[in-house]
Design a protein that fits this description.
Elements (H helix, E strand, L loop, with lengths): L4 E6 L5 H6 L2 H4 L7 E6 L2 H9 L5 E8 L3 E2 L1 H9 L5 E9 L3 E4 L1 H10 L6 E4 L1 H4 L3 H6 L5 E4 L3 H10 L3 E5 L1 H6 L3 E4 L9 E8 L9 H18 L1
Parallel strand pairs: 1-2, 1-3, 7-8, 7-9
Antiparallel strand pairs: 3-4, 3-11, 5-11, 6-9, 6-10
Bound molecules: 3-phenylpyruvic acid.
């Protein structure tokens, strides 16, 4: 019987992290074999899962070409002891969609965008869709949640909310596309890292060292 190994990612299914985790065997140094994918609620849970050995590997978003660091990941990379080993990375083009429940779309059609009271998304998204959000839903409250796909689950349940999330989330949840590719920059890339548990005494990888340099560089930028 084959033993499957767990790859954890920021869930629920439909996040950008899930899409990346599905092919992380190709860019991470994960041995060939059979993998199962586990969605976790927060980036913090992903660090904990690899730390305590619940998951063999985790995939976390690290930084974005439009708005820089994913704060949760940067903070956890600085504070988790010992820090997991970074064994792979990839850059993925990220396209954001405005998703809404069918009833909300009807309300927008009848009453305009002011019918929308709440826009849900992952905090990383706001700075990637500034232009769109300046001219749309300006009276709505922006609520940051743990992931874009979780945002889609909230929009699915509410009659006056939209989510900014991936097209994959639209396929999974009962939400429809109100607007496509709303990111400011068409070349909007996010860098993701694959990590595994750090083994005591192991030499740090080259990738570990380049991430260290990135953290130091960012500390300098914010201190200036
Ligand atoms: O929330 C998600 O879907 C994630 O995977 C985190 C994220 C959010 C925004 C851009 C890239 C990754």
């Amino acid at each position: 019987m084959t033993n499957s190994k767990l790859i954890a990612y920021l869930g629920p299914p439909g996040t950008y992290s899930q899409q990346v985790s599905c092919y992380c065997a190709y860019f991470g140094k994960t041995p060939s074999g059979h993998y199962e994918y586990v969605p976790l609620n927060t980036i913090e849970d992903c660090f904990a899962a690899v730390q305590d050995g619940t998951a063999a590997y985790v995939v976390v978003p690290f930084s974005n070409s439009s708005n820089g660091p994913v704060k949760f990941t940067y903070d956890l990379l600085r504070t988790t002891e010992p820090r997991p080993s970074i064994i792979g990375e990839t850059q993925v083009k990220v396209e954001h969609y405005v998703l809404a429940a069918p009833a909300t779309l009807l309300r927008i059609k009848q009453g305009g965008e002011d019918a929308v009271r709440t826009v849900y998304s992952h905090p990383q998204v706001w700075g990637q869709c500034t232009r769109y959000l300046t001219s749309h839903f300006s009276n709505a409250t922006r609520i940051s949640v743990d992931s874009t796909a979780y945002a889609a689950t909230l929009a699915e349940k509410e009659g006056n909310a939209v989510a900014i999330a991936s097209i994959a989330a639209a396929d999974i949840f009962h939400v429809e596309v109100y607007a496509a590719e709303v990111q400011d920059n068409q070349d909007n890339y996010t860098r993701f890292l694959v990590m595994e548990q750090y083994v005591n005494g192991a030499e740090r990888t080259e990738l570990d060292q380049s991430v260290d340099m990135e953290l130091v560089r960012w500390d300098r930028v914010t201190a200036a």
